[in-house]
Structures are given as structure tokens and as C-alpha cells.
Amino acid sequence: MTETAKRNLDRKKKLIKIFYRKFYNLIKDNPKIRRILTEKEIENGIYTLVNRIADEITVKEQKIGRELTVEEIKEIVMRILDELSSVSYIG
């Protein structure tokens, strides 16, 4: 594994850990979500979300050759949340 690939993987793991903790703390005590989803479903959903966010961030960072600013990261997070919120899974 090259140094760049190792650095990118470490960065992605760090982002996943940070975003997982943030989203889990927001969602874990929400009574509406607790009535609908099990603990495992909540964890899997959050993991899917943060994995997608981390992927988008690391891909963009690789393209531009630097770490993104907080504002750039916020834009990516909001875009992904907006995309996911507009998808209906219940017919």
C-alpha cells in the first residue's frame, strides 16, 4: 500500500468515526425513531450515511490534492442529507 493510499484510508476512518459519533448522538434518543427502528437498524443506517459522506469527502480531497475546509465538508454533508431525505422508501 502506498503512503498516499494509507493516508487516505486513515483519513476516511477518522471521518467515519467523527461523523458516526455525531449522528448517533443526534438520533439515539429520538423517540420517533426509536418507535420505528431497532438499535441495529439505526446503527446500520448511520453507518451507511457516514460511509457515503466519508467517501465523497475523500474522493474530492484526492481530486483537489488537499483537505477540505469545514465549509466544503458542510456542503457535502448537506447535499447528501438532502438527496437522502428526498427519497421515499415507503410506498
Structure summary:
The protein has 91 residues and is mostly helical.
Structure, described:
The chain contains four helices and no strands. It is mainly alpha-helical. It has one domain. The model has no long low-confidence stretch (mean pLDDT 90).
Notable traits:
91 residues, mainly alpha, 4 helices
Note the total helix count: 4
- The general outline is elongated
* Percentage of residues in strands: under 5%
Helix content: over 70%
Quaternary organisation of the protein chains: single chain
Low-confidence stretches: none
User: Kindly, what is the distance between the CA atoms of the first and last residues, rounded to a whole number of angstroms?
Assistant: 45 Å
Q: Mean pLDDT across all residues, rounded?
A: 90
Characterize the largest beta sheet: strand count, sense, and whether it forms a barrel.
Answer: none
Number of strands: 0
How many structural units, i.e. domains?
A: 1
Radius of gyration: 15 Å
Structural classification: mainly alpha
SSE sequence, one letter per element: HHHH
Task: Set out the fold topology.
Blueprint: H1 3-27, H2 31-36, H3 39-64, H4 70-85
